[in-house]
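Hey everyone, long-time lurker, first post.

I ran two proteins through the pipeline my lab uses and got sequence/structure pairs for each. Pasting them in order. The first:
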Amino acid sequence: MVRHKAIKATLDVGKATEWNDDHISDFSSKLDLECDFVNQTIATFWSTAQTSGGTAPNLTFLDHHALCILDTGATTNNISSMRYMLEGSAGNITYVDDAPVINMAVGMTAFHTSDEVFEFGLIKSDTAAAFTANQNGAYFRVDDNKLYAVTGTGAAETATDVTPVGGVPEWAVYRVELGSSNAKFYIDDMETPVRTETATLPTGDLTLKFSAKSQNNVDSTMYVDACGLERNRYQG
């Protein structure tokens, strides 16, 4: 693909410097990743090594179609977690300069109404464990029965309550658009962000991550119906 920055009128004279800057061959302007959990072995694409006590994420058939279930079991602090892999090992797959966009169809149907129980979105792969404080990423969190949009640098974070009217959705489509100057968060309505965050933006490499945690001996259950990542490189 050849990108053009300068547009000249007929007979208008251009400069050599404009030509060099204007004609850029961009062979990787957009890369896509899609996962719908149909005929896809979890272990092939996802690392579940950060699962602790809970059941490792696995495929299930619910409401007439296949999806992935993260089930903690009913013991406090059990975690079920999965990170998208690179070359068969837990690893990062994108960066803020890729202008990554992630879409996720997620259901959260059972959880205790106090403390952290879910987090999902773009998170640095080598974070010590799920639910570690100040994670490097841009993601959603459910804590104390509220839904938060979170950005973190690894040293500090900003969490904003974006709970819809009616409470944490049982099922919704979530979207995070991450750029160098802000992170935009969406819930179902893909035109109007529920939050545009400019503080504590992630600075490191990132991957897709989904995690559930039990609290007060109550099971936490997350269903991931599908997820997709776009990396819109060289968008400026």
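...and the second, right after it:
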Amino acid sequence: MKALIFDLDGTLVDSVYAHTLAWQRVLAGFGLPSPACVIHRRIGLSGELLVKAVAREHHRSLRMADVKQLEKKHKALLHKLAPVSPPLPGAKEILAHLHKARIPHGIATSGKRSELKRSMDALALSPSAVVIDGDMVSEVKPEPEIFLLCQQQLQVEAAQCLVVGDAVWDVHAARRAGILSVGLLTGGTSAQELYNAGAMRVFRDAAELLSEIDELGVKGGGPGG
């Protein structure tokens, strides 16, 4: 493997449950009450796909204007509930290791660029870091476009990349992009679910991934990341 592509929420920063709670409150206020588990398993999708999926379970269809308004309310409530998105164990360390070893790497997230600043600051990313967000593609996970764009910007063949994610949507999108993937448990998805989706390995967190990164055949000396 010559390059790593990371998901963000639940993989590098501890934000999945804040997203879940924010969506739960916003949707309930719109007449779409849902158990947290229903929302949690869809974190990683775009806000539009998440809202439509929850509405479908209530046998309702929403106008796009309603979806956009719910996304706006979710963003505002998320900032109130979780003003900080702390790095998950090993996140900063693995990014620093990859940078030092000159192993190309990037972040590909369904989130909007305007929502990412806190996470980027928490990870202390360099200005040259490759970050692909939902505003840069026409379709987000589980579509593969976001990973393919990141792979192209890293200038490494898909077969030589490895996606690191915490949700089944990351694994599905990676498979459709022709990229192998590994899963992390830090987003709350079980190891069995990640394996069933197609992850080739599952690690407790980024710290454990870093401690065993040599087993994945990740080699340094590339053009940088």
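Reply from user beta_strand_b:
Welcome! Quick read of the second one: The chain has two domains: 3-14+86-216, 16-81. The mean pLDDT is 93.
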